[in-house]
Amino acid sequence: MAKPRVGISACLLGRNTRYDGRAKGAPELIAALAPDVEWVPLCPETDAGLGVPRPPMDLYRLADGRIAAITPEGHDCTPQLDAWIAATLPALRRGGLDGAILKARSPSCAIGTALLHDGVPGQNGNPGLATYSASAGEGAPKSVGGTASDGASAPGVFCDGLFAAALKRDIPELSLAEDEDLRSAAQRELFLARLRVHQRLRRDRRWLLVILALLLALLAFMLSSPALSRYLPPCPLHYLSHGRLTCPGCGFTRGWQALLAGDWRGAGVYHPFAFRLLPLLALVALGHGLLCRWQRRRWPWSQWLWTALGAWLAAWLLTLRG
Ligand code: SF4
pLDDT-based confidence at 39, cuts 50/70/90? Predict the structure, then answer.
């Protein structure tokens, strides 16, 4: 049986991909999960061509709000990393990934534990060349004005590494964990369960979509005929409150029937969304497509769906008030 596919920071697998040419293996974690998953090793920094060994880098919030990965010498590695991320994410999405285990505190891989500085290296008390040493953590400053150190316990602001942030933004349904989140057997079991659910949904998605399309077609067919729509179940809220309360979907059937009969005004009276739903959805889909193309990134649909749901509920509350 196919196993869930899990992206993993290559250094955790014991590969010598870190800036200092060493690995940061997690043998216990790898041994525990290896029988149940298929690894997809990734190293954003070496795969982007930054080389091994390479200068360590840290994350800085620049004056324009961007977060950049900069070496102590001031070299901005962000364009190189961004180019690799933009080329890799579509392939990961197509190849089918169920989750990822990423290295804590890395400026590329961390999930919320990468130290974030304000400004640029050598300014605002930020670390410069002299503050790094070969024994530092993944791109971690040894000491910055007494506030930063190699570890999540240091006071300061932390954020996602550049690759982890892109992964969250572009494939939001993925299960993500840092190596340090999976120390106990219980944590690993829970993570594995999430991976298996994702794998099942990914595998069965085509069938689910076919079933959903068939159900929608059947519903549309029943709605198109007053004779058939008699067989649709009554609204439970309307029924149980003896007609005193309506639900957010009440009036939708009659609205659609009016719409199909060419009575646009009547459709709007029965249910505001019956009249406006299709053009609204078409506009949302068009806007979504244009935004993704313009920004060259994939925006999650969830934002639009929540907005549409909010508008629907607001329309329902207005009908209740009336
Ligand atoms: S933490 Fe990420 S970027 Fe750094 S060596 Fe490991 S895989 Fe590569």
Answer: very high
**What is the 16 CA–ligand 1 centroid distance (Å)?**
9
- Please report the pLDDT score of residue 154 as a whole number: 45
* Dist CA 317 CA 322 (whole Å): 9
Residue 190 in this model has a pLDDT that exceeds 80: yes
pTM score:
0.67
Atom of ligand 1 nearest to the CA of 106: 1
Query: Do the bridges between strand 67-70 and strand 99-102 make them parallel or antiparallel, or are there none, so unpaired?
Result: unpaired
pLDDT at 146 over 50: no
pLDDT of 143 over the 70 cut = no
Cβ(113) to ligand 1 under 6 A? Answer: no
Q: Domain-by-domain residue ranges, the chain?
A: 5-199, 235-321
Q: Best of 108, 115, 150 to mutate for ligand 1, by most ligand atoms within 8 A of CB?
A: 108
Residue 189 binned pLDDT confidence (cut-offs 50, 70, 90): very high
Ligand 1 close to Cβ of residue 18 (< 6 A):
yes
Residues in the chain, overall count: 322
Candidates 159, 116, 166, 111; CA nearest to 141 is: 116
Selection from 10, 19, 272 nearest residue 136 by Cα: 19
Residue 18, beta-bridge partner list: none
Query: Is the Cβ–Cβ distance between 235 and 247 less than 8 Å?
Result: yes
Encoded amino acid at 7, one letter: G
Check: CB of residue 52 under 8 Å from CB of residue 18.
yes
Does ligand 1 have an atom closer than 6 angstroms to the CB of 43? Answer: yes
Q: Per-residue confidence at 265, pLDDT binned at 50, 70, 90? A: confident
Q: Ligand 1 pocket, 103 CB below 6 A?
A: yes
Q: From ligand 1's centre to the CA of 8, what distance in Å?
A: 9
CA distances 43 to 91, 179, 259, Å, are: 15, 15, 54
| Region 64-83 average pLDDT | 93
Report d(CA 23, CA 44) in Å as an integer: 14
